[in-house]
Design goal:
Layout (H helix, E strand, L loop, with lengths): L21 H13 L10 H17 L7 E5 L2 H16 L3 E5 L4 H10 L2 E5 L17 E7 L11 H11 L2 E5 L24 E5 H4 L7 E5 L2 H8 L30 H36 L3 E3 L7 E6 L3 H13 L6 E5 L2 E7 L7 H16 L3
Helix pairs in contact: 1-8, 2-8, 3-4, 3-7, 8-10, 9-10
The chain binds pyridoxal-5'-phosphate.
Pyridoxal-5'-phosphate binds next to helix 3.
């Protein structure tokens, strides 16, 4: 189809390769037909109640403590913005700390809020270093579980006590890797997350739900609500004292029925279906990583905890950049890049639910073939 980037193709390996799934597509169609406008509990009771329910289900699936309040925002960018608004409301402070590998949405939120952003350096494996953290006047620390370039995991279990001691809000950005916590063997990455004040996981990244569906939890719902609640006269209802209106927990008033597609995914795929898909993607990335490791003339550039491999060909940045261009111009696969320690690095992300070993093998064959071609 002209003008379309084929995110739904099993050989789409760029950015975070994300995938929709049939149950979610049908539910999205239904949500459009029902057109629920959840400005208040009363204007969309089922949508509001279902949102709470599916957020609780996902919280259980990824091992969060019980009792956290969850709701859905459009994107992780909005979720993080909301968390920083709550952090500033609670602390009365204006500084935000994240690692130099945090997603640009943290920079953008700080800029929009006119908060001062301080970047902590990372260690050799691209994780936030905690040795020099000074949090005395800090409103919030954003720790990332699954950074965008390399999927590195900040040491949340070390950052959390430091935040508690300093009275700073801890927001965890697990936009990509959070979904993988459905698999117990990957839960090490969530160590310490139970101490966070807020957490974002994008269902539209690794929970087989089409964009947009960003899940935002807080362990301090009352303070979160205080930061956002504003109910004008024309929206007051008899329910308002005790009923739950999710618009009081974030920037948007009109909210659509996003929970339906996530509910469909959870009901149709189930825990086992999610685990199977996440394990398959991780195993395929591990295979690819092994092929790169074993091939002379190629280099792995970062550890691979999940389903993203960072690698490059021996040679200059320009040669690697030209290689990426040739590979993508072939139209056979699509990969993306990043820069690590100043060097141009190729990124292959596995995530589509129908990607097979043949697809990953075809990608590696093509990349090696193009690398041998004189441009
Ligand atoms: C770690 C991380 N956080 C946040 C985001 C922003 O996500 P969204 O597009 O939902 O705003 C991304 C996007 O890739 C990401 O990788």
């Amino acid at each position: 189809m002209p003008g379309m980037t084929n995110w739904q193709h099993p050989r789409f390996f760029a950015y975070f390769s994300v995938t929709s799934s049939e149950p979610a597509m049908l539910a999205e169609l239904l949500a459009a037909a029902l057109n629920q406008v959840a400005i208040l509990w009363r204007t969309a009771p089922a949508a509001t109640e279902l949102e709470g329910l599916v957020l609780d289900w996902v919280a259980q699936l990824v091992g969060l403590p019980s009792g956290w309040h969850g709701h859905i925002e459009d994107t992780a960018s909005t979720s993080t913005l909301a968390a920083l608004i709550a952090a500033r409301h609670v602390t009365g402070r204006d500084a935000v700390v994240c690692s130099e590998h945090a997603h640009s949405s943290v920079d953008k939120a700080a800029r929009m809020l006119r908060m001062e952003l301080r970047k902590a350096p990372v260690d050799g494996e691209f994780r936030m270093r905690t040795d020099g953290l000074e949090l005395g006047d800090v409103a919030a620390v954003v720790a990332t579980v699954g950074t965008t370039s390399t999927t590195s995991v900040d040491p949340v279990a070390e950052v959390a006590p430091a935040c508690r001691d300093a009275g700073a809000w801890l927001h965890v950005d697990a936009a990509y890797a959070g979904g993988a916590m459905v698999c117990p063997e990957l839960r090490w990455a969530f160590e310490g997350v139970e101490m966070a004040d807020s957490l974002v996981i994008n269902a539209h990244k690794w929970l087989f739900t089409p964009v947009d569906c960003s899940l935002l939890w807080t362990s301090r719902p009352d303070r979160f609500r205080e930061a956002f609640s504003l109910v004008p006269e024309y929206l007051r209802t008899p329910d308002s004292e005790d009923a739950l209106s999710l618009s009081e927990y974030g920037p948007a008033l009109g909210r659509r029925f996003r929970s339906l597609k996530l509910w469909a995914v959870l009901r149709c795929l189930g825990r086992a279906g999610l685990q199977e898909r996440i394990r398959r993607a991780t195993r395929l990335a591990e295979l690819f990583e092994g092929w790169v490791r074993d091939e002379p003339g190629w280099e792995l550039c970062a550890p691979r905890p999940f389903s993203v491999v960072c690698f490059r060909r021996d040679g200059s940045d320009g040669e690697n950049e030209a290689l990426l261009r040739r590979v993508n111009d072939s139209g056979e696969i699509y990969i993306s890049h990043t820069r690590l320690n100043g060097r141009y690095v190729l990124r292959l992300a596995v995530g589509h639910e129908r990607t097979t070993e043949d697809d990953v093998r075809a990608a590696w064959d093509l990349i090696r073939r193009e690398a041998l071609r004189v441009p």
